[in-house]
Design goal:
This protein is 71% helix and 8% strand. It is mostly helical. The chain has a two-stranded antiparallel sheet. Heterohexamer of two alpha and four beta subunits.
Length: 127
């Protein structure tokens, strides 16, 4: 059905498909970052409930290296802050991609309605 579309409509359709892939990638990155953030927040909460004199270890590659309470807390706090910023950035990016997708979808529908007289090739753009 794409072969019967005008070249401008085909370009818009390809751009929509690319945006859909981008949206999926951003969503996956956001989900991964949110999971890491939840894990870091849980670790920080657990650390704050732990005696400061307890032995602590940090995972470095395949090794566990002994560390002190303050270093572990500082590192976790920094990790939480960085992940919060990352999730916020990905949320904004996700919104921008969605808005662009909806705008392109509307342009494509108008193009097809105006150029094709209505219903025929609307199928690919309607998803």
């Amino acid at each position: 059905m794409q072969g019967s579309l005008p070249p401008e409509a085909q370009e818009k359709l390809e751009e929509l498909q690319n945006l859909q892939e981008t949206a999926q990638n951003v969503s996956e990155q956001k989900q991964s970052s949110e999971t890491a953030l939840n894990e870091a927040q849980t670790a920080l909460t657990t650390l704050e409930e732990t005696d400061a004199d307890s032995k602590m270890y940090r995972e470095v590659g395949e090794l566990l290296i002994e560390t002190d309470y303050e270093s572990a807390k500082d590192d976790l706090e920094e990790k939480v802050e960085n992940l919060e910023v990352r999730v916020e950035q990905l949320t904004k990016q996700e919104t921008r991609v969605q808005e662009k997708f909806e705008s392109l979808q509307e342009e494509l529908q108008q193009m097809l309605q105006g150029g094709a007289g209505g219903a025929g090739p609307m199928g690919p753009g309607g998803a």
